[in-house]
């Protein structure tokens, strides 16, 4: 976000000597397993969008690193937000509702797009900002001195967002800085020579596409239903009208190959699909399946697989997500 909420504009009056900052992971989850870096700062100076690896995991003018959860339901497990470095809390906001901005409208969050959040000032003119936190979860107060790793609150859905995530923004002397590149820059494509993230955070936030969520439905699902966890559980009725395997992928670039398979309890392939991405997409939703033609589905354990392959460039390799469910 380009804006800085009025609530967060309180700064120290005395200048502080410039110095480096080291940032730890600001969220209590396991990236690549139960949370993912969905969008990154836009480093393109013009109207186009580009992340630090010359990919498209950003939108024009995006300032932050968005670390998101798999679904809206994951908010309920209370994923913590931590201070990435020691400093002084300069602003807080709490009390905004957790809601999809597509449903409540942008006017409902006008001038408060960050939602519930915290602004921390660090030595050397650095600031970090933490946005979209859960209503009622903010646990620090303005003026409080905190250490790196201090609990700030929990991940939520407040402000201008349609997915549960923490947006983490870094500034130096009021200017937004990409923590993957740092102040000194680096190669045209790739991390900077001196990124701001510490070694553990750099490893956790490694660049690349991934299938991040998979499940089953008794009919063709709509994406909004999946987003709101309308198909929980791993058990289907034998009289379901269809068996449909769905999956979500993130961080996709042109040329990435998506693949899905659905296998029955006898080991036979029921459905499969492969496609090559023609354009970059932050998120992609796919499903495959089969309609019931017999009185009932065979009982037993079924298997699903979703994978994405990138043949070259940043994030190259194959990542897969396996899944099993039972028909009774």
Write structural notes for this entry.
The chain folds into two domains: 6-204, Glucose Permease (Domain IIA), CATH 2.70.70.10; 210-327, Sandwich (Immunoglobulin-like), CATH 2.60.40. With 328 residues, the protein is mainly beta. The termini are far apart. Residues 1-18 have low confidence and may be disordered. The strands form four sheets. Strands 1, 2, 4, 5, 6, 7, 9 and 10 form an eight-stranded antiparallel β-sheet that branches. A five-stranded mixed β-sheet has the order 12-18-17-14-15, with no helix packed on it. Strands 11-13-16 form a three-stranded antiparallel β-sheet, with no helix packed on it. The longest helix has 6 residues, at 199-204. The protein has helices at residues 101-104, 199-204, 223-227; strands at 35-39, 65-69, 80-82, 87-93, 116-122, 126-133, 145-146, 151-154, 165-172, 175-176, 210-217, 235-236, 242-252, 257-263, 269-276, 281-291, 300-310, 317-327. The chain is globular, with a radius of gyration of 21 Å. β5 (116-122) and β6 form a beta hairpin.
**Beta content:** 35-45%
- What is the CATH level 1 assignment of the largest domain? Mainly Beta
The helix/strand class is mainly beta
Could you spell the SSE succession in H and E letters? Answer: EEEEHEEEEEEHEHEEEEEEE
The main pleated sheet reads as: 8 strands, antiparallel
- Give the number of domains: 2
DSSP summary: helix tally: 3
Rg for CA atoms: 21 Å
**N/C terminus separation:** 48 Å
> How helix-rich are the residues, as a percent range?
under 10%
The CATH H-level superfamily of the largest domain is Glucose Permease (Domain IIA)
